[in-house]
Amino acid sequence: MIVLQQLINGVSLGSIYALIALGYTMVYGIVLLINFAHGDILMLGAYTAYFMLSAIGAGPVGMLLAFVVSMIVCAAFGISIERLAYRPLRSAPRLNSLITAIAVSLILENGARVIPFIGPNPRQFPRPAVVNIKLAGELSISNIQITVILLSAVLMLALNYIINYTKRGKAMRAVSFDMQAASLMGISVNGIISFTFALGSVLAAAGGVLYASAYPQVNPMMGMMPGLKAFVAAVLGGIGVIPGAMLGGFILGIAETFTKGFISSQFSDAISFSILIIVLLIRPTGILGKKTRVKV
Q1: Residue 249 is assigned to a structural domain of this protein
Q2: What is the arithmetic mean of pLDDT over 10-23?
Q3: What pTM did the predictor assign?
């Protein structure tokens, strides 16, 4: 029974990691960039929802509006970051873009700390009352966990539909496969890359609201650890492979909650990164990643 309870907790946490990891893997799949500012987009989404819910309350309508507004705000930030920070460096060595991504992350974190209406101090996140639903014996699931799992599943299905069955999604796959050929075929490469950043930021915003609802506290540094773990999840599943990001998120979430439940909460972060090291040693491309050959 304890194992099933930890499994439910792990699926709930893994759903959040999977949402955030999808943003990493989409951006890498198209422009081969690790966007380390992605975790801070989560923070911006959580703060946007915090201000919305503080103003209108944490009822169903308030939560819906908080989700929508945070997604719009984060999509705008994602597009702006790509346009101002990453696009000028697209033809530069990858190291330049990587350093820029770290710089953008630091700017967002420390910028939030000095803005008067955010500040460095943690704040309590408004959320609906927690209701635990008994399933069998001591096994239970909360309304927050149900919301996290169901909404994450809906967003993942929506992303799958966009990528596989829409014109914009086909263009994304074309740009990912060969950017120059896609450009010659009339696809707006800059527009598709901006759309990818926007889509990833929307998922990060949803992940931020869900994470703050599950762990009801917001602070300017809150996106750092979930962002790193989502990156681990993306690499674990196969960076650049969308199903791999989902799988890696769930594996990481379940491993973390089982470690907290059966070993010690102090080892949860160590276990997460140890899994990454083991996978990279055994299968560097990740679980669902494919080996690629480069001709010289």
Answers
A1: no
A2: 92
A3: 0.92
